[in-house]
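Reopening this ticket.

The earlier resolution said the output was attached, but the attachment link was broken on my side. Pasting everything inline this time so it's all in one place.
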Amino acid sequence: MLLKKRRLNYRVVIPLGILALAGLRLLLLERLPAYLRPGLRLDAYVANTADGTVTAIDLVKLVPVATIAVGAEPSGVRAHPVRDEIWGVSSDAGVVWVIDTRSNAVVARIPVGGAPFALDFSPDGRRAYVAASASNSVAAIDCASRRIVARGRAGRMPWIARLTPDGKTVVVSNRDDATVSLLDANTLSPLAVVPVAPRPEQIAILPDSSKAFITSGGSSQVAVVDLRRRVLLANLDIGGIPDDLDLKGDGGELYITMAEAHGLVIVNTQTNDVAEFLLLGMAPTAGALASDDSVFYVSDSMAGHVVPIAIDQRRVARPIQVGQRPGQLALTPGDDMLLVVDAQSNDLAVVRTATSGLITLIPVGQRPRDIAIKMF
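Inline output:
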């Protein structure tokens, strides 16, 4: 009788074990994004401004894998479009740094001048452009050799430099001049200087390179510049101080978050008019647009949540709680996960977009600000 019971248990245990292994495999496959083939990695890189580091995070296992010292006040973190590298700037050190994503080590530090805040890549990834605010200059870097190949003069305190999608013109917002400099992308020689609204900062450029929209840090205006004729078209009043600019994929609409006005302004980029205003919450700060332009996610830095908006219907969905003071956010390829940095709790929130549910909070460094995602 005892032998019979043992045989019965043995017959039960084996199928249960097989089922358990199958279930585990199913869970692992569910965690693995469909676009992530075997051998590919998907990592996030978070710049931490208070401790001068970048935290590398494995987005499949959802764990931090490295803390990389890059220099004081890191910002402008960007994934290189073709190389397995993450680039960014150290504002205090006046350098551009380069991280090799396979080793998670800094492989280059390129002095560019005092107080850089951001950088931009050419469409082919051959060059990087960065404005140095303290030296009133713009540098072009060859990404392969990591050497500066051109320098140009901008106005007083150039905030950022953005390259037009056609790769021909560098657009620079000069914060202390209330101007925009247009430079030749190859030589960085001056093409034009266009007066705009006070304290110009962020720049969005239409996909056809015809217009640039520039926020004002000192007024409720957004400047519209015709890049072909090199003239100011309008200083558009949007009813509040702009915080973030996000352009629809086809360039037809511009989405401007405004914490001061508690909402989102939608600009028709063809007519240069405010098309609509959506009231969102306490302090809508930054946005991220789905790759198919269907959903726009906005972080609210005072309410501790992210608001999803069905853009075509202008419908605001239920907020997603993500932490204490959410700021910058980014979507993974395929839009399956939304990543949100929290400057107060020093976490990265990971949200599954299909369910609008928080998956986990991942600890990062002190006062995280910028985030980039790289698949390699």
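Reporter confirms the inline version is readable. The radius of gyration is 23 Å. Helices lie at 2-31.
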